[in-house]
Amino acid sequence: MPLDAGEVPGREAAAGASDRIAGLALAGLRPVKVVLATDMHVGLALRAARESLGLGADDIAQVTRVRSAYITAIEAFDFGALPARPFIIGYVRAYAQALGVNAEAVVARFHAEAPPVDGKLRAPGGVRHDALGGVRWLLISGAAVAGAVMVWNVSRRVELRVAAPARASARLTAGPQPDPGPTRIGAPLPTPPEATTPPVYVTPGLAPPDPARSASDAAGRAGAKTGAKTGSRGPTDAAPGEVGPPFAAAGAVFGAPAQGGDVVLQARKATSLVVRGAGGAVLFARLLAPGEAWRAPASLAGLTADVGEASGVEVFVGGTSRGRLTQAQTALTRLEEPDAGPAR
To answer: What pLDDT is stored for residue 70 in this prediction?
Structure first.
C-alpha cells in the first residue's frame, strides 16, 4: 500500500540519525526485544517503545516515509489530524515494522482499541481533489464580468436620458429664427448636355440638298400623281411643259462628251443602268452611285434604258430637269418630246 511520505527531515538530521536508522533495520537481530505496554492504548504503547529506543518521531518518519505529524497523531489517537482509516492502518503497520514488533498484532490491537469512525474516506494530508474548482471560478468570473457590463449599460442609459432634455432645451432657446419670407424661384438652369437633341448626322461625301431640286422633285411627284389619276403615264413624272432646275454634276459623268447629246440620266440613289442599242446590244452597263450620270449620244434612235429603280433616276433634257423616270424600261427617243408629258 502506498504511504504518504509527507515532510521528510533534512539531510543534516538524516546524517545525524543514520546509525539509529541502521539499528532499526537490524532490530530483529538485536538481543533487546521490544515489547508494547498493555496498560495504555496502542498509540501510547508505540510512543513508549519508540522513546525506549531513543528515537524521535522524525526518525520513524525517515524509515516509514510517513509524516512525523501523522506519527504524533497516531500516538495521541488524534484522528481529526489523520486521513481516512485505511491509510491509518497502513501507517500503523509501517510504524510497528520500524520498531521490530509484530505488525499484524499491532494492527489487530489498533482495530480493537481505536474508536469507530464514519465510513467516509478522507484523502491523505496535502492531497486535494476538486474537479469542479476551475469551472466554478470560471463561472464566477464570467458572472462578475456580465454584471459589470450590465451595470455600465444601465448607468450610461441614465446619463443619456438626463442629458437629452438639456440638449433639446438648448436648441429651443438658441435664439429667434429669421423670418424666411416669401419663397422665390430663381432662373431655370440650362439643359444638361446629355438631354439636348444631337445634330442631324450628314453622310460624308454627299452634296447638301438643293432647295430648287427638292422643289423639282416635289413637282415631279405631284405630276406623276396627276397622271396616275387621269389614267395615262409618260416617260417621266413631270407635268406637261414643266421645267425643273438645271443639271449639276455631283459625280462622274459617263457616256458621250459634254458636246454630245442633250439627254442626261442622273442617279439620285444607287441603282443599275443598262443602255441597249438596236437589236438589244448592250452599249453601257453600270451600277451608278448617287450623283453619277450617263450622257446619251446625239442620236437616240433605237436606244433603250433599263434601270433598277425608275424613281431613282432623274432625266435632264437640254440641261434642265424633266422629272424622274416612271418605268424601268424607257425608249430614249420619248425623252426628247417637247413636253415629255404623258403619251397621247
So the answer is: 93
For position 171, what pLDDT does the model report? 60
Contact between residue 211 and residue 248 where contact means Cβ atoms under 8 Å apart = no
Q: How far is CA 133 from CA 14, 127, 144, 334, 338, in A?
A: 38, 14, 17, 125, 129
What b/e sequence results for 163-193 when a residue is b if at least 16 CB atoms lie within 10 Å of its CB, and e otherwise?
Answer: eeeeeeeeeeeeeeeeeeeeeeeeeeeeeee
Cell numbers of 143, please? 458572472
- Residue boundaries of the structural domains of the chain: 11-113, 211-336
Structure-block grid coordinates of residue 161? 436620458
Q: Is the pTM of this model over 0.70?
A: no
Rg (CA), the chain: 69
pLDDT tens for 89-146 read 999 999 999 988 888 989 998 988 887 765 555 555 555 556 666 788 889 999 999 9
| DSSP output for 307-318 | ES-GGGEEEEET
Class of domain 11-113: mainly alpha
